[in-house]
Amino acid sequence: MQSTESAARRLQDHAVLWSIGEIRAGDVVGAACDALVAGLDSPALRALAARTRAEADHDVPEILPAALDELNLTFYYYPVDSVAGQEAVVRALARRMLAGELTPRELACRIQKRFGYELPLTERLAELDDEYDSLDYGGGRAPTQVDAEVTAEAHRLAQHPRTAPEPPDAPA
Length: 172
Hints:
The chain has 172 residues and is mostly helical. The protein has eight helices and no strands.
């Protein structure tokens, strides 16, 4: 069983990933269930965890902010194309890999597909994804060496300071 602290972090990460479209609302409901099992509790968290997959797409947008608020967690509204939102997704994916939810290769591949070389924070992971591709053709280092470097990058990214969302543009 995970600690309440790691369950809270996972729920908050799932909120970020969902808000940017990286995961489905049903995954957020699953994280809410895991949070309850880990010992977190609030009325909105229970309501969120009680949602079916069919209800999730409709109900998560309404219930999730309240659930996070009741747990003293912040729900960040990142514009989809914002650098702060992209960096939040990267940190959340890195933590998922470190928790064993993704393999190092899956992390590198997802980062490369989503951001390519456009996000300075993830350039090294994009390069490492290219190294994985060269392994398929018998070139480069041993897969375990690339895995180790991706894991080191994931640790660095998971510790990277959180960037607050950019404020919305002021009305003209």
